[in-house]
Every structure is written in C-alpha cells, then in structure tokens.
Prior knowledge:
This protein is α/β, with parallel strands linked by helices. The chain has a single domain (3-158), classed as Aspartate/ornithine carbamoyltransferase (Rossmann fold), CATH 3.40.50.1370. The chain contains six helices and seven strands; from the N terminus they run E-H-E-H-E-E-E-H-E-H-H-E-H. Strands 1-7-6-2-3 form a five-stranded parallel β-sheet, sandwiched between helices. It has a two-stranded parallel sheet with strand order 4-5. Helix 2 (47-58) links the parallel strand 2 (36-41) and strand 3. Helix 1 crosses helix 6 and helix 3 packs across helix 5. The longest helix is centred in the last third of the chain and has 14 residues, at 145-158. It is globular and about 65 Å long. The two termini are 30 Å apart.
Amino acid sequence: MKQFISVNDVKDVKxxxxxxxxxxxxxxxxxxxxxxxxxxxxNPSLRTRLSSQKAAFNIGCNTWILNIDSSSWKIETSDGSVxxxxxxxxxxxxxxxxxxxDILAVRxxxxxxxxxxxxxxxxxxxxxxxxxxxxxxxxSATLHPLQSLADLITIEEFKKKQKIKIVxxxxxxxx
Length: 175
C-alpha cells in the first residue's frame, strides 16, 4: 500500500482489523519493525501526536516530529510562487522530509472558509505528490483513517455482546 489516506485504501479491511487486534494484544512482543516515521503537523495536536508516537514506539519504530509554523519555516503551497527567501515551498520541503523517514504521516486541517476547497484536500494531495515515501493521513479536512480504524476495531471487539447499538458520527474539527 503506497498510501493510507482513507480506510478505503485497504484492500482487505477485515484482515487489517484482525492484524491490529493481534498487535494490540501482543504489544512489545518482538514487534521490531525498525523504521522511521516522520510525523508532520500543520495544525496543533495532542491525542493524535501522542498516540501516533506511542504506537510507533510499541512496534519498534523511531519517530521525528515537525510542527509546521512553530518549529520550522512556514510552507508555501501555491504553485508558481516567488519565494524570495521567505519560506519553504511544499515541493522541496516534503521532498526533504521524505528523505529522513520510511513513512511520512501528516495532519492537515480544513481552513473552514470554503467547503468545496476543503473537500478537494489540496494540501494532502500535494504532500502525496511530492513525497518519496508512503504517506499516512493522521487527519485531514474530510478524513481521519486512524480514528476510523480504531472505531472499526472497537466495533469488532464489542460486537459479540448481545443487542449492541452503534452510532457513528463525524464532523469537521472545530479548530
């Protein structure tokens, strides 16, 4: 799988859920994947950052974290922009970031100013285009695949109980 942008990117979701449950039960038991995951946050994060970093650690991966705008140059995303030493362009920035990891995991939020623009997922698409390594979507304007996977795992773990009622709801992040 080149990308994990949506749960729909997975050919066999049931198999992925079963594997995740198995990993969850056997945390730290010879799960030495030994890869580096770059965690890039275009927006502030608490739970996504901590849970992604901890999950990577649990399976033997290293991580590096970059908070755009607070611990690096701002990123210019418009094509054809004249840079004049003001910031990094996404094409070069993502290219460089992907040299230092085996997987690039990114979190991008909607601007919440133009619904159609947000739904185009332009920033996420550019990251995928310029990355030299697989991209994992930590959360974007319309998708949150790790949360979706966690929800599916929870449903699988609890569906054996009698008369379980499940309600799934999602709305864009308020920030």
